[in-house]
Amino acid sequence: MEDDNHLREHTHSSEEILNGKFLHAFRDTVTLPDGGSATREYFVHPGAVMVIPLLQDDAGQIRVVLERQFRYPIGQVMVEFPAGKLDAGETVQFCAQRELLEETGYTATEWARAGQMRPAIAYSTEFIDIWFARDLTPGAAKLDAGEFLEVFTATPEELLQWCQQGRVTDAKTLTGALWLQQVLQGSWPLQWGAALPMP
Amino acid sequence: MEDDNHLREHTHSSEEILNGKFLHAFRDTVTLPDGGSATREYFVHPGAVMVIPLLQDDAGQIRVVLERQFRYPIGQVMVEFPAGKLDAGETVQFCAQRELLEETGYTATEWARAGQMRPAIAYSTEFIDIWFARDLTPGAAKLDAGEFLEVFTATPEELLQWCQQGRVTDAKTLTGALWLQQVLQGSWPLQWGAALPMP
């Protein structure tokens, strides 16, 4: 990678400015590349995982599992791939398996890590690890208290059409659509592995 | 669209919990679909615009204009499409033209709106409007004080390879890569219009 020293900022001091139930924010004073100083405010996030779950219907056509969920900051029901935050001490693959089970009821025997995305690089430390799951078995979802969502399936073509039309605007799901298309056309091959044992 | 009343949450009360220089956060009490109550914490954001600027080299090959910028919450230099926040009262197309000029020095005679994305639907009201620009003329960038970034160009194939390899992880730029690929292969046609007059 290129030498980044002429772009890099260095932490001078840091203070917590919000310790909410969910949001934790800091204000740091930083030294700029030219020696000047500036303020950076950001939210510290534990990280998250998104799952792109692949089903095959009776005719052999691939379908993906999606959710419809009301997102309060947006004021709308959003179409999304299953996703959730990491619990303390949890590996990303375990989190992926747990969130798929809790939100959709599905378990999968095969898993592949695709990559990572950063949703809001200007003001959040959040990463979302991107996983594919296949060989799915349906079961009962185990939603958290206060969590309401609907699970449904769609073809990759339907998902892409919704991305074009603006019915899908969630950035993680748009990124998932990019990965899905590249994987299905064979351009971005995945390395599949076994599911981790779940308790 | 489907009836969403069984998923929808309603605001009961709202309080500001952070009034920072950049971050403004609220904690709302909401009524859940089953009549229960819950807390929602979120950032209020003015909205932003991302530009996918298309160049053609001497051989007629398309290239896109990209930036390398240090992102403090991530601690890394990120590869991104040009983007920036809306100023008060500004239209999204004007913001797109202004940010492209300020950050890269380019002006474009033709503009097309592609769609919108929502970077962090769990905790931010932010939207990013996605625009394409073509027929570019280079000029001098006008960076804000404390803003340091490098402008460069790449082919769409290079950008997609970086998305696959994890060199591009910014969610807006990954979403831009999806749009770019679909537009260049003719699947998602754009409606081009003229640039707005700039002061």
UniProtKB/TrEMBL annotation, chains A, B:
The keyword Hydrolase applies. It comes from Rhodoferax saidenbachensis. This is GDP-mannose pyrophosphatase. The lineage of its organism: Bacteria, Pseudomonadati, Pseudomonadota, Betaproteobacteria, Burkholderiales. PROSITE patterns: NUDIX, NUDIX_BOX. It catalyses: GDP-alpha-D-mannose + H2O = alpha-D-mannose 1-phosphate + GMP + 2 H(+). Its cofactor is Mg(2+). GO terms for molecular function: ADP-ribose diphosphatase activity. Residues 45-182 form the Nudix hydrolase domain. It holds the Pfam family NUDIX. Keywords: Hydrolase. Belongs to the Nudix hydrolase family. NudK subfamily. InterPro entries: NUDIX_hydrolase-like_dom_sf, NUDIX_hydrolase_CS, NUDIX_hydrolase_dom.
